[in-house]
Design a protein that fits this description.
The chain is about 25% helix and about 25% strand. With about 625 residues, the chain is an alpha+beta fold. The strands form five sheets. Strands 1, 2, 3, 9, 10, 11, 12, 18 and 19 form a nine-stranded mixed sheet that branches. Strands 7-6-14-15-16-13-17-20 form an eight-stranded mixed sheet, sandwiched between helices. A five-stranded mixed sheet has the order 25-24-23-26-27. The relative contact order is 0.13. Mean pLDDT is about 80; it is low at about 5-20, about 415-475 and about 595-630.
Length: about 625
């Protein structure tokens, strides 16, 4: 890739004045979080510029695994099946004691997202595939060896002062919004004077990336070696690699521990001879638990490590950043197109921060099991956990690797967010309500400066109670809102077997589990409908057949017949049979989309007309269900 990969200037929101002034979104940082954002935003047709200070992909493998929900996000950008070609799926996991005996074993159990529940990866290869995906979008410009040194916000957008690190050139660009995915040492976060609260652990770890020359028994099992003398992580990685991690103990010489001789001495304890591996690199890392005080400052949003950092024990650091931009990107797109008011962007922090804090809490807990070096404590651990592993109910929770909490976004849209930034100004849609590309009136001062106090949004009418009304009361028996629906394989209108999201198309949608109940407010907003037919039904236009019975079972369990789905497949609202949904978000009015070449077209109905769904064709829809983890 050249240092500046320039596309055309026809994306939504392009500035007719030319120059560098017309970007909808600037993405700072081009690691896994930034490159995922570039793919998601590029597929919408928005005009995007990506700024990355380095010339090449970072060569050190940091993340080593991901999960099915993240693969579902990458499916939305058409890259999941290609990425999985370079991954190892469904490998067992053992916690072993000092003598190498497993005192706890686990095997990933699918949660219904349509992909294997856990996959090991080699991060440089993964990032290359994601960057190649961005190249599909002519509306995305990638500026390598460029660093943003200053941000200045005003009522209309953000001015970025950008320095070319190759030639010290200085350029100024403007964007409506900025996603800062520039890592744990984020310069953007520092410029915004946002605190990064938490702690850094005293223990430092040497992380060793090797190439496997000769395989050894069970080389493809993940082992947490819980030896109080020196704990270790012994992890398979794809493409012929293997990963070890060892703590640097008191009295160790840190520089010596990264030498080939020291590394061979440490791995020899596990029967690995020098002729079985080639040491590629060894790096020392510290583990952090940190959260940005705010994820949003005006028009700038922190994502990934710039917003939070966690220990690596459950493999969720990279995944959390991918979830961040998946949550944020569709909201930015909707606001820039005038489909939703600007205040919806407050729900980003309200939804993501509580979830990432809970994920971090669990990562810390698992880390304590692995790294405890007190002999008395480890003896109890090694004796008690095997006993718990035999207790019905407890055993299932320990063995199925469901340690990663499921995101549940019950707040954000339908209640005042748990954040100091502002309330959500969503309520029953007023007649004729609408917004412009730049957001509704009244957002002004709260979004123009370095601080985002939210004063313009905190009125009592918007605290999350006034908008619930009778409709929400009637629908209160359902438990579906805030959950992401599963993604089974379904039969599409043309008779093909595809993953559900390839039919949903990443848009607002009404999903009916029975004879549709009219939803006039949603239909006036232009939201299309899709009916879920029971297994054995014939394919039909505007419907999918729930061939495996997964969707209809889920609807029954959550006491819902009609769902209003957000573009990320989370349930915005739900209703039992024969009742109407709560109203859509204030100002929701869908607009026709101009799709980029790599994004399949979808059919949106004219307002006030429930319509059928066209089936998008996706690079991920033709793969074998068995190979991809049928739920």
């Amino acid at each position: 890739m050249s240092e500046i990969s320039a596309g055309n200037r026809t994306g939504a929101g392009a500035d007719d004045g030319g120059g560098d002034a017309g970007y909808d979104v600037a993405v700072i940082g081009y690691g896994p979080t930034g490159v995922t954002a570039a793919n998601l935003l590029g597929a919408t047709g928005l005009r995007v510029v990506v700024l990355e200070r380095d010339a090449e992909i970072y060569s050190r493998a940091r993340a080593i695994s991901t999960d099915e929900e993240v693969m579902r996000i990458w499916q939305r950008i058409g890259l999941a099946d290609r990425l999985k070609q370079d991954m190892l799926a469904d490998r067992p996991l053992d916690f072993v004691d000092a003598r190498g005996r497993a005192f706890l074993s686990a095997h990933p159990t699918p949660r219904g997202h349509g992909h294997p529940p856990q996959m090991f990866l080699y991060q440089p290869a993964l990032e290359q595939v994601l960057r190649d995906g961005v190249d599909r979008h002519p509306n995305v410009e990638v500026w390598l060896r460029h660093e943003c040194l200053r941000l200045r916000q005003d009522a209309d957008g953000v001015e970025l002062t950008v320095v070319g690190t190759a030639d010290d050139s200085v350029r100024r660009v403007r964007a409506r919004y900025v996603i800062a995915a520039d890592g744990g040492s984020s310069l953007t976060r520092a410029q915004l004077n946002v605190g990064y609260e938490g702690r850094t652990y005293e223990d430092r770890w040497v992380v060793i990336d090797t190439r496997m020359l000769k395989p050894w028994p069970d080389h493809d099992r993940l082992r947490f070696r819980c030896d109080p003398a020196r704990p270790a992580v012994d992890c398979p990685t794809p493409l012929g690699h293997h990963r070890w991690e060892f703590p640097i103990l008191p009295g160790d010489d840190e520089r010596h521990l990264t030498t080939d001789g020291a590394i061979h001495a440490m791995v020899s304890r596990y029967g690995i001879d020098p002729d079985q591996i080639e040491i590629l690199r060894a790096t020392v890392y510290s583990h952090h638990v940190r959260f940005a005080a705010r994820f949003r400052v005006g028009r700038v949003f922190l994502a990934g490590d710039a917003a939070h950092a966690m220990p690596p024990w459950i493999g969720q650091g990279m995944a959390a950043g991918v979830r961040d931009v998946a949550n944020l990107s569709w909201k930015l797109d909707a606001v820039l197109r005038g489909e939703l008011p600007e205040s919806v962007l407050d729900s980003y922090e309200a939804e993501r921060k509580p979830h990432v804090k809970e994920v971090t809490r669990r990562a810390v807990f698992v880390g304590r099991i692995i790294t405890d070096r007190r002999p008395a404590v480890t003896r109890v651990r090694d004796a008690v956990l095997p006993l718990l592993n035999r207790v019905p109910g407890v055993a299932g929770r320990l063995q199925d690797s469901h340690w990663i909490p499921v995101a549940h976004y019950a707040d954000g849209f339908l209640a005042r967010p748990r954040t100091k930034s502002s309330g959500i100004t969503f309520g029953r849609r007023a007649s004729g309500a609408g917004t412009s590309r730049t957001g509704p009136a009244g957002t002004g001062a709260a979004h123009t400066g370095a601080a985002h106090t939210g004063a313009a949004h905190t009125g009592a009418a918007h605290t999350g109670a006034a908008h619930t009304g009778a409709s929400r009361t009637r629908a209160s028996r359902t438990t579906a809102p805030g959950h992401q629906i599963p993604q089974p394989w379904v039969t599409a209108p043309d008779g093909s077997r595809v993953r559900l999201d390839d039919v949903l198309g990443g848009r607002w949608l009404l999903l009916h589990g029975a004879l549709p109940t009219p939803q006039p407010e949603w239909e006036r907003a232009g939201v299309p409908s899709l009916t879920v037919l029971p297994a054995g039904s014939s394919p039909a236009e505007g419907a999918v057949v729930d061939s495996d019975g997964v969707l209809r079972t889920w609807l029954t369990r959550h006491r819902a017949t009609t769902l209003a789905l957000r573009p990320d497949a989370y349930v915005y609202a739900a209703a039992p049979a024969g009742t109407t949904l709560p109203p859509p978000p204030e100002g929701l009015t869908l607009t026709p989309r101009t799709n980029t070449a790599s994004t399949p077209p979808v059919t949106t109905p004219t307002p006030a007309s429930p319509a059928s769904s066209a089936l998008p064709t996706s690079p991920d829809s033709s793969s074998s269900p068995a190979a991809q983890g049928t739920p």
